[in-house]
Amino acid sequence: MMMRQTCAFFIAGMVAFACNIASAQEQAAKLMVLSIKVVEKTADSDALKILAQPVITMPVGEPFSLRAGSQVKPKSGGEALSFGMDVTGTLEEGRTGAVQLSVKIALGALVSQEDEPDTDVVRTDVFEIRTILQPGELKRIKCSATEWCEVRVTPAQSP
């Protein structure tokens, strides 16, 4: 009798262990592709200017980040100034198949100082977005009168 109980507990434990591994593998294997496009309509014409267009593959539920840019050492001394694109955030899966996106997009550019040769300026625009996305659907989010962000999330292709 004792042997049967021990075997039953052992088998039940192994099944629970196997289920936990399968669940962890499913979660680890659930990769999503986030496509972002930040667009600006120029004031002097109807031309569109793409300010950033990152594509990030990340596991669901894990923080992600992408940095593309550089730094310049200021002429007047001090710490380096960063410019370029910095994207950070998380993507969480909801119960209905939708995903919740929390993203911060920082776009920094050097500003020319022709009249002030000892001055360095980096102008940074920051967009912080919280939204719900349906996988595969494009969502356009207005950020200002002339700027918007297009976001789409799709499941990553399996190898």
List the helices and strands and how they pair.
Elements: H1 2-29, E1 31-41, E2 48-52, E3 55-59, E4 64-72, E5 81-93, E6 99-111, E7 121-133, E8 139-142, E9 147-155
Antiparallel strand pairs: 1-2, 1-3, 1-9, 4-5, 5-6, 6-7, 8-9
Description:
By secondary structure, the protein is of the alpha+beta class. Helix content is 18%, strand content 52%. A hairpin with a 5-residue loop joins β5 and β6. 12% of the residues are buried.
Count of domain modules: 1
The gross shape turns out to be: globular
Order of helices and strands: HEEEEEEEEE
> Mind describing the biggest β-sheet?
5 strands, antiparallel
Low-confidence stretches: 1-22
Task: Determine the number of helices (DSSP H or I, runs of at least 4 residues).
Answer: 1
* Approximate strand percentage: over 45%
Distance between the termini: 48 Å
Task: Determine Rg (CA atoms, Å).
Answer: 24 Å
Mean model confidence by pLDDT: 83
- Pairing-aware structural class of the strands and helices? alpha+beta
Q: Which percent bin holds the helix content?
A: 10-25%
**Count of strand segments:** 9
What oligomeric arrangement do these chains adopt?
single chain
